[in-house]
Amino acid sequence: MLLQGRNAVLYGGAGAIGAAVARAFGREGATVHLVGRSEPALRAVADEITSAGGRAETAAFDAFDEAAVDAHARDVAERFGSLDVSFNLIAHPYAFGKPMVEMDYADLEADVTSRLRALWLTTKAAAPQMIRQGSGVVLTFGGYGDPQANLGGLQVAFGAVEALRRTLARELGQHGIRVLTLQTGGVPESLTNEDPKTQRAIAKMTEDQTMLGRAATLDDVANAAVFAASDWARTLTATKLNLTVGATVD
């Protein structure tokens, strides 16, 4: 098992992507600490993990509450002996299909600041625990590819998060902490809150931009996250894992 004995905190653990990653982490031996706002939704994912023989804990709170995030990270490290992986998978609304020049600045700023705040708060909470143990992995999701039209502030926000991720990797590397991004061009399977017509439109747009004519699946993302969090990726930090199926060329 690639993550045997690790403690992984997943923020947004009840979402489609968060749940897929949580199940994969549990399968690979990690104790998965699921964080989100809805205890019933978190418990449903935790029950799947434990039914399959894994270990999972839940904590229902708002990950924008700095005191709650800090207290939870300390509790995980103290009660379970380590905090090895912190993965921010909190969902954020954005103005899909809207040109930026038609947006109010407040809406653009809100998208950028909410994503930055989520990564900053969760990493700031995990870092002291990881520094103390001399190891850890911080994962973020999204990445920044070639600019596309009519995505509102989404790519601007991803660009800001990538800038923060690079700085965090530089500052935390001396403590044995790796910081990585999982970049996709979109995961159509995860669009469970969209109406079927919008789902199909986004899926087609995503697939048409790839080299292989298909988009990343939830399993693709989950398996890449396991690799990124494991010692198999011990040489990787300050970079991204490109899961865009060729939509973004490095």
Automatic annotation (TrEMBL):
List, in alphabetical order, the Gene Ontology terms for molecular function in this entry. Answer: oxidoreductase activity
InterPro entries listed in its UniProt record: NAD(P)-bd_dom_sf, SDR_DHRS6-like, SDR_fam
Question: Is ATP-binding among this UniProt entry's keywords?
Answer: no
Q: SUPFAM superfamilies per the record?
A: NAD(P)-binding Rossmann-fold domains (SSF51735)
Q: Does the keyword Membrane apply?
A: no
Alphabetically ordered keywords of this record: Oxidoreductase
- Family membership, please give it: Belongs to the short-chain dehydrogenases/reductases (SDR) family.
Q: What is this protein called?
A: NADP-dependent 3-hydroxy acid dehydrogenase YdfG
Q: What is the protein's species of origin? A: Asanoa ferruginea
